[in-house]
Write a structure and sequence with these properties.
Helix content: over 70%
Number of strands: 0
Shape: globular
Number of helices: 12
Largest sheet: none
Mean pLDDT: 81
Strand content: under 5%
Length: 247
């Protein structure tokens, strides 16, 4: 978790967004789509604020009850289900670019920032997102059932569900790192399990950053990609020799 501070400092110092212009219209189009997605995700927030102005007594009670009667489910009203994966699919060009730029700065690797490479990365992102979404549902169902059998679902059900979501969200970001070293999706999944804590931390921070209106989806992608790369290089590095073997 503290490595997100390192990730922020890295971004501030090295400005890894340089080179995005090489993607041409694709980067601009997807950035525009991300902004629209951010607006769409927070439309309910706007309606809540509007009601607070028009009906302060009613909305005030509702807002107060949100904090006094806390439930994890109340945080899932925007990014529940497949929405968080849709965010990463739309912003794949940024995730892949930031990871490659971080590897270039850290290791001197020449980035592959052609439009053809991006299309391949986008196709893989869609596949990985579908796999993650299906596995998330299956895992949550199994864990929820087991917790119910031992009588702990009421206390551990919601927290465990969020940890599972964090893991798969983090896995998708980490998969971009593995993709740079030519790992298959199957190999990437195996290695992600070896660094489950990193995946949960990356996914958790990215998840909550997405709640920041409009710019949150871009911030989650940028910070998540850079921090994931720094963390993987420190705790589970892939050597150049291993990369050449996989090629």
């Amino acid at each position: 978790m503290p490595m997100h501070i390192e990730g922020y400092k890295f971004i501030k110092k090295h400005r890894p967004w340089t080179g995005m212009d090489k993607y041409g219209w694709a980067a601009k189009l997807l950035l525009f789509a991300a902004i629209l997605l951010g607006i769409f995700l927070f439309w309910d927030v706007f309606l809540l604020a509007k009601d607070a102005v028009i009906h302060p007594d009613v909305s005030g009670a509702s807002i107060s009850s949100f904090f006094t009667d806390f439930s994890f489910d109340k945080f899932d009203w925007i990014l529940g289900g497949s929405k968080k994966y849709l965010v990463l699919i739309v912003l794949e060009i940024f995730t892949f670019h930031f990871i490659q730029r971080t590897l270039e700065i850290q290791m001197g690797r020449e980035p592959e920032n052609t439009f053809k490479i991006f299309i391949a990365a986008e196709k893989r992102m869609i596949k990985v997102s579908i796999i993650a979404y299906i596995m998330e549902i299956i895992t949550i169902t199994i864990v929820s059932t087991l917790l119910g059998l031992i009588g702990l679902k009421s206390t551990l059900g919601q927290p465990s569900e969020y940890l599972i979501q964090f893991y798969f969200l983090g896995f998708i970001i980490i998969d971009n790192y593995h993709e740079c070293f030519r790992l298959s999706i199957k190999e990437s999944r195996k290695k992600a399990k070896e660094v489950m804590g990193i995946a949960v931390a990356i996914g958790g921070v990215a998840y909550f950053l997405m709640y920041i209106p409009i710019i949150g989806v871009v911030a989650a992608t940028m910070i998540g990609a850079v921090t994931a790369t720094l963390a993987m290089q420190r705790f589970s590095p892939l050597e150049v020799a291993e990369e050449e073997e996989l090629v």
